[in-house]
Structures are given as C-alpha cells and as structure tokens.
Design a protein that fits this description.
By secondary structure, this protein is mainly α. The chain contains eleven helices and no strands.
Amino acid sequence: MTQLVIHHYAKPTARRHLWAGMIMSIVAAAFVVDLATAWLAANPMAAQGLQASLLAGLATGIGAIPVLFMRRPAERLMAPMLGLAGGMMLAASLFSLLVPALQHVAASPAPWALGILTAAALLAGSQFMQQMDRQWPHHHVESIETDQMLPRVSLVVAAIALHNLPEGLAVGVAAASGADHGMTLGIALQNIPEGWIVASAMVALGAAPLRAALIALGTGLVEPVGGFIGVIASSLAGPALPLALAAAAGAMLWVVSHELIPASHKAGREAAGTAGLASGFAIMTLLAALA
C-alpha cells in the first residue's frame, strides 16, 4: 500500500485520482457508519449486545494495568487464574446460552426437530473453532515460558484473538437476545486476570510494559467484533434463535476444553487449577442468580 501511494505521488498527474479514491473511501465509510447507527437505534437490544461485548473487551485492558508495576503474575497464581477464567466461561455457556436455548426449544411447536438442530448447532460451533485453530497460525500464551525459542508477537496476538472472538460472539448473542443472566459482567471479570496474563506474556517477548498493556487492550477489542457478529446472528435468527445461542455455547466450550483447562492443569498445578475452575463456576452461578 505504501508503494502504491509513493507511485501515485511520483506522478503529479495521477494525484487527483488518489485523492478521489480517498474521498470515495471516506464517504463510503461514513455511509456505513450512518446505516449502522440507524440500525442500532432501531434495534435497542442489538445495541445493548454490542455495548456488552465492548465492555467485556475493555476489561482486558484494565486487567493489563498491573504489568506496568508488577510484571508477570507469580507462578503459583497462573493455574488458579486460568482455572477461574475457564470456570466462568463454562458457567456462562450454560446459564446464558444453553439454558435459554433449551427454554426456546421446549416452548416451540416442534421441540424434537428444533432440539436436534440445536444440538447440531452446538457441535457446529465447536467444530468451527477447531477448524480456525488448525488453519490460523498462532502460539498460545501459556506455553511461552516453557518453550526454548520465543515465538513472534504476531503469533501470540493471533492466539488471543482466536480466544476472544467466541467470547464476544457469546456476549453479543446473549445480550441481544435478552438472555444475559450475568454473562457480560462475568466475562468482563474473567477478562481482568486474563489481561494481566496477556500483557505479561508480551513483556516476556520483549515488549515494553506500556506497549504490552496496549497490546492486551487491543486484543480485548476483538470481542466487540465477535459481539457484532453475534448481534447480527441473534437479530436475524428469529425462530432459529436457539441455534445461534447453541453455536456460541459450542465455541465457548471449545475454548474452555482446548485451552483453559489444559493450561490450568499442567503437572503439579492440578489442584490449584481445579479450585480456580470451581470458584469461577460458583461466581457465575451467583451472578446468574442475581441477574
């Protein structure tokens, strides 16, 4: 892109074409923003879902603040922190996604047919994440300290984005469908220790503390992207809303099973990881009961 701009400016007669293209791009972007704003104003539940995913994503940046002062969390805290995140995500997928989906299925005129499709959507959500994991080059944060060679920052950021996308998707679907049940607050709370872990991993890769905190914040802002997808899915689903809820739950369950539980249950850390998992589930149970 830079070479294209240089090429255009090297030829004065072509400058007006470059400026025309830039103006057209700005006008198109403004038009899209205007349409999106009007659509969100006409769909308050969709706006609520987008706001919820943004709140959850910003919590990652808040959690990264300690890295400016304390750097990496103590080793003994890593297992319970990862277990806590896993327990909260596991409970959120149950209380805010699967239970509302099953309630819709039970109230439908064809519960058996819709129930089978809902179960298939759950598996499809998990399989989608599995395919993304295989095809998207990335490197997990939790394995940085055990590797002999440090990975590129971009590969770690890709792994975090892969993790945060289903979180945003789930929050957006749940909030837009009126089935939040404490999910937004719960995901935001579990993103706080997650932000610290992410930022400390960036420091381990050589980033300055402030840059590491900003990278963690940037990865958290992937969640509104997933939230926007979830909002659209829940808005268009109509009678098929249980399918959207179940697919988001499947994506969340994949993250918990594939990443968080194994990372929190490494050799010698099993008890701490299990305690964190149970604590996270208990916190989400309380949030769901009070919501």
